[in-house]
Each structure stands twice: as C-alpha cells, then as structure tokens.
Amino acid sequence: MSVNRVTTRTEPEEPDGVRTPLRGRDAELAFIEARLDALGRGEGGIIRVEGPVGIGRSRILAEAAAAARRRGTRVFEGAADPDDQFVPLGPLLDGLLSGEEPLSGAGRLRDLATTPGQRFWLLQELGDRLRETARNGPLLVVLDDLQWCDDLTLLTFNTLAAGLSSHPILWLVAVRGGSVPSGVRTTLDRIRQAGAHELALGTLDDRATARITEDVLGAAPDPDVLGVVRRAEGVPQLLVELLGSLREAVTIENGTAGLPAGPPGPRELPSVVRRLAQLSDEARELVQTAAAVGGPVTVALLAELLGKSSAALITAVRESLDADLLTESGDRLAFRHDLIREAVEAGLPLSLRRALRGQAAEPPPGSAASPAGLPGPSAGRAPADAPEGGRAGPGDAAEADRPRTAAAEADRLRTAAAELAATAPGPAAEHSLRALELTTADAPERPRIIAETIPLLWQTGRAAQARELGASALATGGPGPEDEARIRLALARLAVPFDFCEAVRQARAGAALPGIPVDLRGRLLAMLAVGLSMAGEHAAAEEVAAEAWETAAAAGDRSAEATLTTVRSAASFHRMDLTEAFRQAERAAALAEALGVSTSLWVPEALWHALLSNTTGRTAQALAAAEEGIRITREQGRTAATRMWLMTRSRILLEVGRLTDARADAEAAARATDDLGPGSLDDVTLRYVMMRVALHTNDQRTARAYAAEARRMRSDGAPVVRHFGSWMLALMADFDGRPDRAMAELDEVMASPAADRPAYAGLVDPADAPVLVRMALRAGAHERAAQAVALAERRAVLNPGLTFLAATAAHARGLLDNDLAPLVRAVRLYEDCPRVMARASALEDAGRKLAVTRTSEAVPYFETALALYARAGAERDIARVRRRLRAAGIRRRPSPAGLSGAWPELTAAELRVVRLVARRLTNQQVAEHLSLSPHTVSSHLRRAFTKLDITSRGELTRLAKHRDSGE
Prior knowledge:
Largest sheet: 5 strands, parallel
Strand content: under 5%
Strand order of the largest sheet: 2-3-4-1-5
Number of strands: 10
Distance between the termini: 67 Å
C-alpha cells in the first residue's frame, strides 16, 4: 500500500488557473475562524461540512487550512478518492504522513501500515503521535470526501476523534449530502452525538453570483450575462465552469461585460467530464443516453434504447445516482442539474445525439412494436385444405388472437408516446398515430387516442392534420360527452395560436357538455379563460377564471392551476398592477415547469412571462428567456413552440433596436407557418413587428403591404387583434403625414367597452405613449394626448420600481407640455433601460426642444440619437436626425456606434454570419454555431449580399480576405 501519493481534489477549475476570492460564504468562514480561535485556546472538536457535489466543500476546507496556517497552526490534509477505497486507511494516512511537515515517526507508521496484522498497533501509534504533536501546539486535521472513505478509515477517525477530544485537535471533515453508504452514515451519527458542529452549504445568492461573475470576467456583468449565469442556480462549481465557457463570447465595454452575440451553445464542463470518466462503461452509456433523450426518462425506456433488460441496468443506475449525475424523480430518472445534462449531451457528436433521439422513437427489432412482432396480412388465414366445419384449425386461433394483439400493441405505443412526449414529441406523435391505426373505428378507446394525438401533431408543426383529425371525429357523432370534451379540449389548445375565437368556441362547447368529470371541465374552463384573455375580452376571462378556480381546486388539478395563474397575471397586467402580474407569471411558469411541458395545458406559460418582462423594460431578462426557449424547443423538435418563441423574440429585438434581427426572426417564423396558415398570434406579433421595422427602415412597400393586413385585422372577432390592427393603421397614417387619419383609426379602440379596452389607451407597448402623444398633438387632439399622458403617469405611479415606465411617462409629459425638464429626465431614466429605440426617441425630442433656443446644447443629444438609430439600422430615423443636425449647422456624419469599420454596411448580426460563411461553413453549420435557425441565417446572408453588392459565396470569401487584411 502506498502512503506517499498526492490525492487529487475535485475543486472547481478557475479560468487561467487564477483562484478568485471566495464569495457568499462569509457566515461559514466566520464560524470556522471562531473555531480556530477556540482551538488556539486549547479547545478541540469536530466540524462537519456537508453539501452536494460542486457546492464548494473542498474550497471551504482549503480556506480553513490557509486560515489555520496563518495562525501558526499545524495542518494535516487528506482526502478520499472513489478509485482508492480498497486502500485501507489511505485517506487518513495520506493527510498525516504526506505534505511538507508529516507527522513525527512517519517511517515507523509506514512500516506498521504495510505490515499485515499490525493495524491495532498502528491505531495506537497514530494516537500517541497525534497526542505528542498536540502538546507542542494546536492541530487541524482535514479529511475531505468522507463518503468515499473505507471502513477502517471511518473507524480510525471516529476512534481518534473520541480518544483525543481533550486535546487541541480540530477535525474538519467534509461529506457529500444526500445518500451515503451505511458505514459513513453511522460515523456521521456518532460524531453528531459526540457534539460535532455542522455546516450545511447551500447555493449562492444572486449577489454572490454577480460578484463571482465579475471576478472571473474582469468586469461587472450586464443583465444578459447575469441571465445566463443564473442557470448555474448558485452552484459554485457549475458557475465557475459556465463562466469559463462564456469568456470567449463576452465583450467588455465601458466597464461592463456583455454578450453582444448572445450566449454560446452548451459545452462540456470539466467537472462533468471527470465524473463521467470515473463511471463504468455501462453507467456512462446510460447517462449519455439519458442526456440525449432529454427530460426525465423511465428505466424501461433506457433499457429499450440500450438493448438490455431493466434488471441488467441495476448497477449502472445505482452508479449514476451515486455519482450525483442523476436523481430519482418519481418513477423516472432526471439529471441533478440541467447544465449537467447539457454538458453530457455536448460531449456527444451531433449525429449520435440525433440517432439516439430517433432511436427513442423506434422500438428495437423483435419487440412487440416491431413489424415482426405483429401478425402480417395473412396471419390467421386458414389453409385451403382446412376443414370447413366442426373443429377449429390453428389459423382460427391466430385470427382470434389478432385483435387482442393489436389492442395490446396500441396500448404499448400509447405508453411509449406518453413517455416521449416531454422530450421527443415527433416520435411520440408517430407512436400515437400508429396506435390509432391499430385501433378499430368502433373501439371505445379510439376517441381518447385522438385526443392524445392532436396536441402531439400540433407541437410538431402538423396543426392542419391535427385539426382534421379532431373535426372528423366530432363529425361522426360517435364520441360520448366525455370523449367529445377531451377532443374539444385538444382542439382548443390547438386553436390558441391560430384563432383566439375558435379556441373560445371549442372550450366553451366542451365545458357545456353534460356529465363530464370535474377535472376535465376544470381544464376546459381554464382554456376558455385563456382564449378570452388572449382575445382581449378581459372581463369575461376573469369571470370564467373565477369559476374555473373552484373546479380546478375541487379536482386538485395543478395543470389547470398553472394556466389559470397565467390568466390572473394577464388580468393584473390589464389593471396595471405589474408587481402582482409578475408574481403570478413567475408562479405560473414555475408550476408549468414542475409539471412538464407534456402535461401543461397551455405551452407558453414561460412565454407570457418573457413578454411581460419585455413590456415593462426588463428586456435582458426577456431576451435570455426567449433564447433559452428557442434552444430547448428546437432541440426537442417542438416546431410550434419554437415558432412562438421566435415570434416573441422578434418583438423583444424590435424594442432593443436590433431591427435586422427582429425582421429575420419574424421571417423565419413566417416561413415555419403550418398549413393552417397565419392566425391571430401572427397578427399581433409577426405582422406588427414587420410593419414597425419597415417604418423605421423606410421600406414603404413592405409597410403598405402590412397596412393592408392591418385593415383585415380590424374586422377580426378578437378585440385584441382589432386593437393591434387599429394601432398599425394609425402608425401608417402618421408615416404618410396624415395625423387626423391616424386619430380616426383609433376611434374604435377608444370607443370599446372600458373593461376590455387596452390598458394603454389603444397602444401595444408603454413606449408607444410618447408616439401617441406626438401623433395626437400633430392632429390637434389635445384631449387624447392628455389622456395618454395621464395613463402613462398612472402606470408609473402604480409601479414605482420600474424605471422604464417612469421614463415613458416623463417622455410623454415633456411632449404634451413642451417642457424640456421632463424630456431630459426621460433621457436620464432611459439610460438604465435597454430600450434603444425609446431612448433614441427621447434624445431626439430633447434635442429638438433645445435646438429652438440653445442649438449648441442640442447637438450632443442629436448625435447620440443618431448613433443609436444607426446601430439599429433605422434609416428613416437616421435621415430625420441628420436633417435636424444640418438645421443646427452640423454637416459632419458621426460614425455609427457599434458597427465594424471594415464592414460599415452590415449590422453585428449580419457580420457574425458573414464571417462564418467566409470561412466556408454551410448555412446549417452557421446556424448550429450561432444557435440560430437556418432561415435566420439565410435572411442575414441575403441582406448582406444585397448591401455588399455581391451574388455568391465565393465573392464574399474574396471580399472578406481583402477587407480583413486591411488592404
């Protein structure tokens, strides 16, 4: 047995090998300092540090050892290793006999350790040596990873700690939280009874997370960076490793670290790679397969994918649980942390990931699901010479078994579809369709299978097929009330993104059916409330939601609760109580996440939270949520959800002034339109975004095309669609220099019932308040302008913690009163908000007011506004501000901030795509590299080609070489 080896620690690897200060552990370190002070006074004892993998146990021990050495205390450090548990006493002897100053008599102790039958004397000798050493001064004995210690080490530690308790020896041991071997648990119980002090390490708070981020990146993080690092959920090891993967993507500007290109895709993490390497081949394959499949997965499905029986996985499952990579979630296995799952998956080739996910949809050969396992077309057919009467032949028995076999197979396929629905809806839909094929038209379970299949088809981009399936089932008149209600619930979920009014109709019809179960009626009422809320019928939505709450509570239905909590949030938003709206939105998102997307009634609970964040100025948080939503749903093949997230991100990108990116997202979502065609959600996102971008970029042809769509929207059955259409037409009329017409377009909105009127007086965003005031003043509609200002100010007063709302109110007030002071205040308030277009507008308005009497003071406002508009690519706004600068006597053209000097024609997003294409990457490879869709890449590339006046990738490569060389 070797006792001279150096134990490898599993502390987080610091970027560049530089250890950052320990953050967020002040209370724990203060306690240890106090115990070290007591040790200096001759008081020994035991401290047990406990916490999960990656929480920082080893770092606490290292800091304690350093603090002890600063006091002149002698320190011995040892650690157990999972690969060396067969070395008796190894961890303790390593600590006592190795290092710069080993325990006296080390040679004698080594001889005893390697001589058979001498362990009793070794224990006595160790006690004597420690007692003798402690007479010369206090000792700190550190023992890390107690959960991996062998039984003899545990016994020796417990015996020595008890026998030497009167001496100035402090034992500092660390153990992983959760499940530990029985021998370790016994030792922990004994030292607890002996009075050991316990330090339980929890996750870090947001403040500590932000400080560590600044330590690693060298600058204070902006909200985008903070949004990414919060995914570590306060686990120090994951946080530090995640920051290491971010460093290449982070840029530091004005002392702030940001992610101008967005967060990079998932990467391998060193700690996860190490833990995988420590597993057996069987356990490693199991963990990698679980990562590729995605969310929580049953052992049965893993066994099927790995071609083994469930019993054959017992050891591998236990090993993966012991390694703290996986944890049990009910009857399924889930990853301890989503970053761990992503890191494992990132270590697999893309082709293998796709193959594993595809394999999850295909049952193995020879199983009941394979073609060979099913009777063929001739199965059960009697031979030609079979007797015609009396005795049944073997074919008759097969024929009799055939329906039973098909029914069993259909049941198996339904079970598989339910398991795959959360992570692989495409294969799940195929399983469900196959189950439907195996079910006869008069089978009592057929309507239920149809209701299960519709959401899966919709999620995978086959909404028309889903609607036809449901409509056909209802047209036959065959389903009973309960089955009809389930089909109508599925159709209501399907209709929400396409036709708000149809969603209301289906949910209302289903809820009115007699004799249906309480939980089913509760879900239908919840969907009815969602449809009414999205349609803009707020009063009716609240009335239905109140009834639905009672029904859902009686049934104990958490899915309905998540959906109804979103409706409550929307109602609070409508009443301008944004604090309550956020509280309810966060609760709804948490409930939906806990339930899992496959059981959620309404997929976009988290999407609503992102929209709410954007509307109230928390744009970085909203953008981070949208990026994550797009990435996850794209990985899982949720076409419909990806499209909804793309539409949401296009709205966010519009507000932050990334006009090209907003248009690219809108175009990508439009191309992904299902064969049902565009619908209500498209009207209030895609069409609105495309028209606003067209107006800012002076693209009159596109703007007028969407104005025509807005006229159609004015006749929609949903009030919210009519309101959006009215606002779009008002913007178009103002663009054409017809403010009177713009006011007339808003008359219908302002005449709608007060209970359903948009909370922002016909607007779709708080930043539109100054736009409406400016528009109304040009039309001489002072009363309407004053009404918009009053609402903006009321909204800001009701929500004092939201700076963005205060900025829009000050901006609107300054325009109404023609007063410089509130305009300047708005400029100052907008500085803390990422709403580029709103800030540029306030700067322009303040400059316009100053230019009347103090021209020289107006110029900096105009120039800053021009730089922001230039960065956004808002050509119409750029031209207008340049005219104002010329009127002020300024002829120079300020350099657009944020654009590359070598590529002045391109936006940052276009330039990122161009550089990768110039390196001969395909559009698909660029999309994967930048976490974009191929549609978005194509859109960026097409616009870059137009701006650069080139027509081929070869020309682009040559141009890139020329420009980047500085020639």
